[in-house]
């Protein structure tokens, strides 16, 4: 059965050669058919707000952010970057995550999905996400089955990021190798971790006139049982929370509280 509802406004008038969201065709017997159908059926805003429950934005900065968000909704621009949510096709699915190199200029040392900025030669969001996944961990595009798309998120640098959801066979897990230039490590998060409520996690955060504690939801997972957990928060956490809400009907409150 063809899942055809993903084609709504996937071609932007200002950028007609770039295909943002494309139709996904899965048999009804596919393990992730229900997930793909839920992604296709989504009819909410295509750019999720970043001002709700966000105490990092105050005063004029907050007002400007709200106006900017409304302009984005009106303009309906294509994504500037794409990430790939890779889920294993097995009875107990796992999800691919990476910890970025500490030497990078952006999101250094943070847990992230594979992905990156769109190139001028990229023809679709899926192509961006798969190209970046190949560069970062060696994922071969032919090994991935696209399942659908999530609404765009706005990164802390203002980039519009399109999450692309895909599945791979369990045999792919041992094939992937992280790029030493970009990735400190890769790991596979058991999907059931995302089915638990994220904990309230606190970070030290430098603000313009003080150092404060930032509280935000996070999934914490010790994949090596060495007492040093990986912390899934920020943009990656928001994207995965969106996956759980749209794909599985499980909603987690997301916030940034300054103490």
Structure description:
With 259 residues, the protein is an alpha+beta fold. The chain has one domain: Nucleoside Triphosphate Pyrophosphohydrolase (Alpha-Beta Complex). 22% of the residues lie in helices and 30% in strands. The chain is built from 5 helices and 14 strands. It has helices spanning 33-41, 59-75, 125-137, 191-194, 234-248; strands at 2-3, 24-25, 81-89, 94-100, 111-112, 114-117, 144-149, 153-154, 160-169, 183-190, 199-207, 210-221, 230-232, 257-258. Strands 3, 6, 7, 8 and 9 form a 5-stranded mixed β-sheet that branches. Strands 11, 12, 13 and 14 form a 4-stranded antiparallel β-sheet that branches. A hairpin with an 8-residue loop joins strand 12 (210-221) and strand 13.
What labels would you give this structure?
259 residues; alpha+beta; Nucleoside Triphosphate Pyrophosphohydrolase; 5-stranded mixed beta sheet; 4-stranded antiparallel beta sheet; 5 helices; 22% helix; metal ion binding; hydrolase
Level-2 CATH architecture: Alpha-Beta Complex
Q: If you compute it from the alpha carbons, what radius of gyration comes out, rounded to the nearest whole angstrom?
A: 18 Å
Average pLDDT, rounded to a whole number, is 91
Give the tally of β-strands: 14
Sketch the major β-sheet.
5 strands, mixed
Oligomer, anyone? single chain
Structural class: alpha+beta
In DSSP terms (H or I, runs of 4 or more residues), the helix count works out at 5
The domain tally reads: 1
Order of helices and strands: EEHHEEEEHEEEEHEEEHE
Q: What percentage of the residues does DSSP assign to strands (E)?
A: 25-35%
């Amino acid at each position: 059965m063809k899942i055809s509802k993903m084609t709504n406004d996937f071609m932007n008038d200002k950028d007609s050669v770039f295909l943002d969201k494309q139709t996904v065709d899965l048999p009804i017997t596919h393990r992730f058919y229900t997930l793909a159908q839920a992604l296709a059926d989504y009819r909410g805003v295509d750019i999720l707000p970043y001002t709700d429950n966000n105490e990092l934005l105050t005063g004029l900065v907050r007002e400007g952010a709200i106006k900017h968000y409304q302009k984005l909704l009106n303009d309906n621009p294509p994504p500037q970057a794409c990430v790939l949510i890779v889920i294993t096709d097995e009875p107990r699915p796992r999800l691919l995550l990476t910890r970025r190199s500490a030497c990078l200029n952006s999101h250094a040392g943070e847990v992230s999905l594979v992905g990156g900025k769109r190139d001028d030669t990229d023809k679709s969001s899926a192509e961006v996400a798969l190209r970046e996944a190949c560069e970062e961990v060696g994922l071969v595009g032919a090994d991935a089955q696209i399942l659908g798309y999530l609404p765009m998120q706005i990164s802390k640098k203002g980039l519009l990021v399109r999450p692309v959801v895909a599945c791979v066979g369990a045999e792919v897990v041992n094939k992937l190798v992280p790029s030493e230039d970009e990735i400190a490590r890769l790991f596979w998060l058991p999907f059931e971790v995302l089915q638990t409520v994220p904990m309230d996690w606190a970070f030290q955060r430098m603000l313009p006139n003080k150092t404060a504690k930032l509280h935000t939801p996070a999934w914490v997972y010790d994949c090596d049982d060495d007492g040093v957990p990986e912390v899934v928060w920020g943009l990656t956490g928001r994207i995965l929370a969106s996956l759980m809400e749209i794909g599985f009907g499980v909603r987690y409150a997301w916030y940034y509280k300054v103490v």
